[in-house]
């Protein structure tokens, strides 16, 4: 026969859909890989990616159980992924485009049937776990970072007022015995909260909770992250003002500062670990459901080749769309640097060519100067998420 039989059409259509998915994912993948090595992002995304790959391989190398395979959901996810990629392309927001990869991981988990293995995983939680390979810390700091900063400062102040007598609070500034303690943005706990959420996502990937238990555990993790950051600030503020309580060690210097952070991060993981253990035990001791007959539902019912080709054309069209960012700051903003800091006079330094090109494209302005052995970079913009 010269005509292609239906099974051949089905196979070729899957190949074309795969090619279209790769076309949509190429740019986000390249951008994501660059963020892992770019010091401005300070990302640990490569480690997260390796964890996700390890979990995926651990599951897919185990035997499959009989189950119903529904290929319509991955097709729907690919469609949503294409829409997300189009929004990221038009708005020139790389993070939105990279969310395409999260949906792709979810679809891949369903296609590989990781839920129905001797070593099962939750494809949804695996995709959420992969999302932490994106540079989320900077986004959180620029969206809810100041709220976290205020909550942490207020919580620490409340505890310190009940421990010491001479404590006064003014926003994110805490005065203890007339010594100033500033809860700055890095002390907001955004990084610790992200690490706890990553740990929770990895645990839930293995435990596969229901929706209600997943949400309850998420709330527990957020509360744990905020509380341990408050306790960490209390300990560090006490160590700054009363170093004799800590054998006169400087709690703000390495390695003590990092060790304290790790200790409180471990404490924050305890309730998450308990919750994961509880969920896993309840899941493990449930009666195993009766295995159903393995049924393969077609990805598309009619004209699979035609629909696959349309999707491929759509993918090529999306990546060819012109970028029109809407969150562009006002150009040529005047940035004033302090003439001196700590007795050191400012030595102005010009911007790098790539920095100039960036601010020319997206607006805003920046200025750099050196004060003694330290440098200062000030960025002024009306589009903080862009910058």
Order of helices and strands: HHEHHHHHEEEHHHEHEEEHEE
Total of domains: 3
Q: Give the termini separation.
A: 59 Å
Number of helices: 12
Alpha carbon gyration radius? 26 Å
- Major beta sheet, specifics? 3 strands, antiparallel
Number of strands: 10
Which bin fits the share of residues in helices? 55-70%
Largest beta sheet: what is the strand line-up? 2-3-4
Q: Can you lay out the helices and strands and say which pair or pack?
A:
Layout: H1 6-37, H2 45-60, E1 68-70, H3 72-91, H4 94-111, H5 123-131, H6 136-143, H7 145-163, E2 167-170, E3 173-176, E4 179-182, H8 190-207, H9 211-241, H10 256-284, E5 295-297, H11 304-320, E6 340-341, E7 344-345, E8 347-349, H12 353-362, E9 365-371, E10 374-380
Parallel strand pairs: 1-5
Antiparallel strand pairs: 2-3, 3-4, 6-7, 8-9, 9-10
Helix pairs in contact: 1-4, 1-11, 3-4, 3-11, 4-5, 5-8, 7-9, 8-9, 8-10, 9-10
Provide an overview of this structure.
The chain is mainly α and 387 residues long. It has three domains: 1-134 and 295-326, no CATH class; 136-293, no CATH class; 327-387, no CATH class. It has helices at 6-37, 45-60, 72-91, 94-111, 123-131, 136-143, 145-163, 190-207, 211-241, 256-284, 304-320, 353-362; strands spanning 68-70, 167-170, 173-176, 179-182, 295-297, 340-341, 344-345, 347-349, 365-371, 374-380. It has a three-stranded antiparallel beta sheet, covered by helices on one side. Strands 8-9-10 form a three-stranded antiparallel beta sheet, with no helix packed on it.
């Amino acid at each position: 026969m010269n005509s292609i039989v239906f099974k051949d059409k089905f196979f070729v259509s899957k190949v074309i859909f795969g090619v279209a998915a790769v076309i949509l994912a190429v740019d986000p993948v390249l951008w994501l890989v660059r963020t892992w090595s770019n010091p401005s992002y300070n990302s640990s995304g490569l480690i997260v990616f390796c964890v996700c790959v390890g979990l995926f391989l651990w599951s897919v190398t185990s035997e499959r159980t009989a189950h119903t395979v529904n290929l319509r959901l991955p097709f729907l996810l690919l469609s949503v992924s294409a829409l997300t990629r189009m929004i990221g392309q038009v708005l020139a927001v790389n993070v939105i485009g990279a969310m395409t990869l999260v949906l792709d991981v979810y679809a891949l988990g369903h296609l590989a049937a990781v839920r129905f293995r001797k070593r099962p995983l939750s494809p949804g939680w695996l995709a959420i776990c992969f999302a932490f390979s994106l540079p989320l810390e900077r986004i959180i700091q620029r969206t809810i970072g100041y709220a976290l900063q205020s909550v942490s400062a207020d919580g620490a102040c409340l505890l310190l007022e009940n421990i010491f007598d001479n404590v006064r609070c003014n926003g994110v500034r805490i005065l203890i015995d007339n010594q100033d303690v500033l809860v700055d943005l890095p002390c907001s706990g955004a990084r610790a909260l992200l690490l706890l959420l990553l740990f929770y996502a990895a645990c839930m990937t293995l435990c596969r909770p229901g929706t209600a238990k997943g949400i309850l555990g998420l709330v527990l993790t957020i509360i744990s992250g905020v509380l341990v950051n408050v306790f960490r600030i209390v300990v560090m503020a006490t160590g700054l003002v009363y170093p004799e309580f800590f054998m006169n060690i400087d709690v703000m210097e390495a390695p003590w500062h990092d060790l304290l952070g790790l200790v409180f991060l471990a404490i924050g993981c305890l309730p998450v670990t308990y919750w994961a253990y509880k969920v896993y035990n309840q899941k493990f001791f449930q009666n195993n459901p009766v295995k159903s007959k393995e049924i393969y539902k077609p990805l598309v019912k009619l004209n699979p080749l035609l629909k696959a080709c349309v999707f491929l054309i759509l993918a090529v069209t999306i990546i060819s769309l012109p970028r029109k960012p809407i969150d562009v700051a006002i150009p040529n903003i005047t940035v004033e640097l302090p003439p001196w800091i700590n007795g050191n006079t400012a030595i102005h330094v010009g911007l790098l060519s790539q920095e100039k090109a960036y601010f020319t494209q997206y607006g805003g302005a920046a200025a750099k100067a050196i004060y003694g052995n330290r440098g200062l970079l000030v960025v002024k913009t009306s589009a903080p998420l862009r910058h």
